[in-house]
UniProtKB/TrEMBL annotation:
It comes from the Bacteria. Keywords: Amino-acid transport, ATP-binding, Cell membrane, Membrane, Nucleotide-binding, Translocase, Transport. It comes from Sporosarcina luteola. This is ABC transporter domain-containing protein. InterPro entries: AAA+_ATPase (IPR003593), ABC_transporter-like_ATP-bd (IPR003439), ABC_transporter-like_CS (IPR017871), MetN_ABC_transporter-like (IPR050086), P-loop_NTPase (IPR027417).
């Protein structure tokens, strides 16, 4: 589904991602974990070319994103949604308008836009909040709007950058449950998180990063939302000890 081949990215002299090769399987929920500064967010942003790699190749669904001209890249990006830790909503637009932006940018058929926005808001349980502004919403509600916006163009992949790191445990569980529902629709999910319990509760496979490199990728049995309670101090070490189904 997503294939990275020897992908590298530097900022000035600093190499944030060093020759990473990784395959994300269709339909899985794939976690990326590692210490602060390990390169997790950069790696995620390389998957949709929000960061362009210095070298290497990024493939999605057999399409090599790194060799597509601008117009084709914009088209290919419609199949990749993304959500962020701080939601990135437009403050002076309503919930409805925030989701609409995504359809306008993708040139979605005009006569179907309103219906599609409402469908997406319904999916995340926020149709009655459509005329509110982001400042009138809780963190969890803001993330739901961001999810609705990311889903508007029916992506095949959803990239999630620390989607629950600003949320309390109950709201985290609610958002993870929405992500699980999205995955059941067939959407492949990649989730960057430093929260071990988040990774353990929903991911099928996990990639551990350290110093810009992939330390390991392991399969795990998701424990279920809300059931994993530990947040170990040394999560990289802990993760490699998870008694899952072994190397992937
Ligand atoms: N746009 C940028 N300009 C300069 N340096 C950057 C940029 N983006 C990331 N970096 C650096 O690259 C390294 C990896 O950053 P990245 O955000 O990918 O790590 P991370 O594992 O997601 O960390 P965290 O968990 O703290 O968010 C860091 O040292 C960071 O300072």
């Amino acid at each position: 589904m997503i294939k990275l081949h020897n992908v590298s990215k530097s900022f000035s002299q600093f190499q944030a991602v060093c020759s990473v090769s990784l395959s994300i399987h269709k339909g899985e929920i794939h976690g990326i974990i590692g210490a602060s500064g390990a390169g997790k967010s950069t790696l995620l942003r390389l998957m949709n070319l929000l960061e362009s790699p210095d070298s290497g190749k990024v493939e999605i669904n057999g399409q090599t994103l790194t060799s597509l001209p601008g117009k084709d890249l914009r088209q290919a990006r419609k199949s990749i949604g993304m959500i962020f830790q701080h939601f990135n909503l437009v403050a002076n637009k309503t919930v409805f308008e925030n989701v609409m932006v995504s359809l306008k940018l993708a040139n979605y058929p005009k006569n179907k836009r309103k219906g599609r926005v409402m469908e997406c808001l319904q999916f995340v349980g926020l149709e009655s909040f459509k005329d509110k502004y982001p400042a009138q919403l809780s963190g969890g509600q803001k993330q739901r709007v961001a999810i609705a916006r990311a889903l508007a163009n029916s992506p095949q992949v959803l990239l999630c950058d620390e989607p629950t790191s600003s949320l309390d445990p109950n709201t985290t569980a609610e958002i993870l449950s929405v992500l699980k529902d999205i995955n059941r629709l067939g959407v492949t999910i990649v989730i960057v998180s430093h929260e071990m319990d988040v990774i353990k509760s929903i991911c099928n496979r996990v990639t551990v990063m350290a110093d810009g490199e992939v330390y390991d990728t392991v399969s795990i049995e998701p424990t279920g939302i809300g059931s994993a309670k530990n947040t170990p101090a040394n999560f990289v070490e802990q993760l490699t000890k998870i008694g899952g189904t072994g190397h992937a």
